[in-house]
Amino acid sequence: MLLTLTGGAGAGKTTLSGALVAAAAEGPVRVLHGDDYWYAEPGRGVWAPDGTGTPRLDVGDPRSIDDERLDADLGAALAAAPVVIVEGLFARRVASPRSRPRLDVFVDVAADLRLARKIERKCVAGDFPLAVLLRNYVEHRRDAHERHIEPLRTDCGLTVDGTLAPEVLARRIWTAAGAGTIARRDGAGPQGAAMTKDMAERNLRVVFLGDSFTQGVGDPEFRGWVGRVAADCWADLAPGPAGLTVFNLGVRRDTSADVRARCWGETAVRALPAADNRLVLSVGSNDATEEDGRPRVAPDACPENVAALLDGALERGLAPFVVGPPPVVDAGAPHLGRLLGLAEGIAGVCARRGVPFADVTGELAEDRTWVAEALAGDGAHPGAGGYRRLADLVLRGGFREWSTERGPGRRGR
């Protein structure tokens, strides 16, 4: 079993993990602490100069976590112990094998109390300058919490009051886990079995629209991120009319305008009136590519195309999910700058419509596996490892939860 504890700095996650170990009914229990996985040297993670000009790691940004090392240690821990706890600011983001049950817990403590705890621990008990801590909090950490940590609350299966005694919380969490609050990824257990049965009965048909990254160009295993995400989420569903059908309609060099032009013709022949029809969209990488000295699609037009696609999907009863545009490594910093701007615009379009959005651009641009595999190939497309990293980011971005919810049905014009 995997148990994650997510919450802001000062929420008491480390203390709670100790209480969970002490109260565990089975063991051994392994604990991985997120603070052990920060990058140690500039060049990896997000760094910024402090007041003296000394580079400091931005520990409020998830890109400062060494995900590769954490994933490797998590895999080894799950192979060696029946229960593994991961605690940290961004613990909910870790990926885990389908065969393990999982419970994600958000430890909720009000901002003022978390700040007071930090002051007591670092300034009263320690010698950290109070003025520096308060300035960091006001100028950066407060906003970073709202941007990166608070959204993970809705992705967790259980939220607990971090002001309660750790022993009380530990009993509550283990009780929730034992009562079936978690859903096994292999469909075992009452909730997992019910979920699988429900999904099978509703005839799930999922269209993936996008470019060559959606198609999975460069993957020697011919699965790409689409195949990996589908396998992680729906491996227990039988293909065909009684279960699941996945359509990968990625087309090389397609821009958002190209996808918009072909979308409804493509989806109309694949959707069924009584089915749970879905649309997964990922565009933008080709929009930001320059031809004849300018981007192939104007920066303002890309979010407009995505908005039109999402509105059309909702009107047609297609439940949409959007994946941010992956970076093109050999296109350099100017392309990445344009792409990050498009990703921000697309995220805003999704937020205004309540459509889930997996933000992948920035993290992939700094991911060692993605970059190395792309440079070893055609400069743009990664291999199997890079697509695995992209699939994990999509799953962490809420895809798994979206995949188990029922579609919205047709919306009137």
Question: Which tags fit this structure?
Answer:
single chain; 413 residues; alpha/beta; Rossmann fold; 2 domains; 5-stranded parallel beta sheet; 45% helix; globular
Précis, in short:
With 413 residues, this protein is of the alpha/beta class. It has 2 domains: 177 residues, Rossmann fold, CATH 3.40.50.300; 216 residues, Rossmann fold (3-Layer(aba) Sandwich), CATH 3.40.50.1110.
Task: Give your account of this protein's structure.
By secondary structure, the protein is of the alpha/beta class. The protein folds into two domains: 2-178, 3-Layer(aba) Sandwich (Rossmann fold); 189-404, SGNH hydrolase (Rossmann fold). Helix content is 45%, strand content 16%. The chain is built from 14 helices and 14 strands. It has helices spanning 13-23, 67-80, 111-124, 130-149, 166-178, 189-201, 212-215, 224-234, 256-268, 301-315, 332-353, 361-365, 368-376, 384-404, and strands at 2-6, 29-33, 47-49, 55-57, 83-88, 102-108, 158-161, 204-210, 244-250, 276-282, 290-291, 294-295, 319-323, 357-358. The chain has a five-stranded parallel beta sheet with strand order 2-5-1-6-7, with helices on both faces. Helix 3 (111-124) packs antiparallel against helix 4 (130-149), helix 9 (256-268) packs parallel to helix 10 and helix 10 packs parallel to helix 11 (332-353). The radius of gyration is 22 Å and the shape is globular.
* Low-confidence blocks of residues: 179-200
CATH hierarchy, class of the largest domain: Alpha Beta
Following the backbone from N to C, one meets helices and strands in this order, namely EHEEEHEEHHEHHEHHEHEEEHEHEHHH
What composes the largest sheet?
5 strands, parallel
The secondary structure category is: alpha/beta
- Please count the beta strands (DSSP E, at least 2 residues each): 14
Our estimate of the beta-strand percent is 15-25%
CATH superfamily of the largest domain: SGNH hydrolase
Number of helices, counting only DSSP H or I runs of 4 residues or more: 14
Output the CATH topology of the largest domain: Rossmann fold
Mean pLDDT: 87
Number of domains: 2
Principal-axis shape equals globular
